[in-house]
Structures are given as C-alpha cells and as structure tokens.
Amino acid sequence: MASVNLASSLNTTTNSTTVNFTFNTPVKLDQSNYLIWKSQVLASIRGNRLEKFIDESITPPPSHTSQRCGDDLGYVENPEFATWRAQDQILLDWLLLSMSEGIISLVFNLETSLESRLLNLRYLMNSTRNDDLKMTECFIKMKSIADNMAAAGSALSNDDLILHVLSGLGPDYNSVATYITGQV
C-alpha cells in the first residue's frame, strides 16, 4: 500500500485568536483502507481537539447576534460563528486532502466537517455486512448507526433501515430478505 505524507501545520489568526493545527495522515483514503484511514483521522482530530466539528450533538454558535443601536434592534455576524466556520473549513480542507481523487469525486460538495461525519455514517451503513456478525448483532450495529444519523439530522426511515439490514445479511438470507421486502 502506497503512503502519502500529508503532514502539515496550520496557524490561523481569527479575531486575535491564534489557532494551531497539526495534521499527519500518511495514508490517503481509497476504496480499500477505510479502517486505517479512519483511525489516523480520528487521532488527528482528537489530538487537535476538533471533535466539536464532527460531533452531531454539538451545534455551532448562531451565525448572527442581535445588537441594539439606540431604539433599533439589528443583527450582526457573530464573531464566534466566524471563528467556528473558519476552523471548520480548515478541518474540512484537511479531510479532503486526506482522500484519494476517486473518493474526493464522491464528496466534493461537502460544506462542513459534520457533513463528512454524516458521509462516514452512510458509508458504515452501506458497508456493514453480516459476514462476521450474527443477524442480531448486524441489526444492532446498523440501528446504532441509524440513530447517530438521526441525531446528526439525517434520519433514515424505518423502511430504509430494514432494507439496509436486509442487504447486509448476505446470500444465506436471500429467501428471508425477499419475503420481508415483499411485505414492506
């Protein structure tokens, strides 16, 4: 497996706050190395204390705040949001740089780091198979992924969850899958 060194250090100054990021990803994501890539990416994100950008339970600051000028109430851009957005975009850029061209062509329209988290959850949902899991374990894993997707604002319908579970069961369960999809 070829490795590409994407070591970089980013220093940004926003609103008189300097932010230092250091990323090192020797392996670019392709169709065959997701688990290795994921462990390196998460280590870099955690090492730079950037979990808030991919944690679906954390919301960004509001984009605008109210400001009174005499008797008038107006809205101005929130400086906290501007800082959050700048940091998020740096993280998103690094995530994109850590992917092969074939993968980038699938995700080029992402606008935030959280969207990359949702993409990761969708990938997990589509790639989970019954190969090494019992049917109940496979269902529990997929239900957990679906719950995380819902928490991030991208809920699957129950029918879609059932179809994902059935498609992950493998050929041994084709007759069961055919019967259940006929009922759905």
In short:
The protein has helices at 34-47, 79-97, 101-107, 113-127, 135-151, 158-168, 174-183; strands spanning 8-14, 17-23, 64-69, 72-77. The N and C termini lie far apart (43 Å).
Describe the structure.
- The chain starts with 7 loop residues before the first strand and ends with a helix.
- The chain is built from 7 helices and 4 strands; from the N terminus they run ββαββαααααα.
- The relative contact order is 0.10.
- The longest helix is centred in the middle third of the chain and has 19 residues.
- The protein is globular and about 70 Å long.
- The strands form 2 sheets. A two-stranded antiparallel sheet has the order 1-2. Strands 3-4 form a two-stranded antiparallel ribbon.
- It is 51% helix and 14% strand.
- The N terminus is likely disordered.
- It has 184 residues and is of the alpha+beta class.
- The chain folds into 2 domains: 127 residues, no CATH class; 52 residues, no CATH class.
- Strand 1 and strand 2 form a beta hairpin.
Average pLDDT confidence is: 78
When the domains are counted, the total is 2
Q: How does the overall form come out from the CA principal axes? A: globular
What is the end-to-end distance? 43 Å
Share of helical residues: 40-55%
Class from helix and strand fractions: alpha+beta
Strand order of the largest sheet: 1-2
Rg from C-alpha positions? 21 Å
User: What characterizes the major β-sheet?
Assistant: 2 strands, antiparallel
Supply the number of helical segments. Answer: 7
Stretches where pLDDT falls below 50 for ≥5 residues?
1-10
Count of DSSP E strands? 4
* Helix and strand pattern: EEHEEHHHHHH
Q: Give the DSSP E fraction (strand runs of 2 or more residues).
A: 5-15%
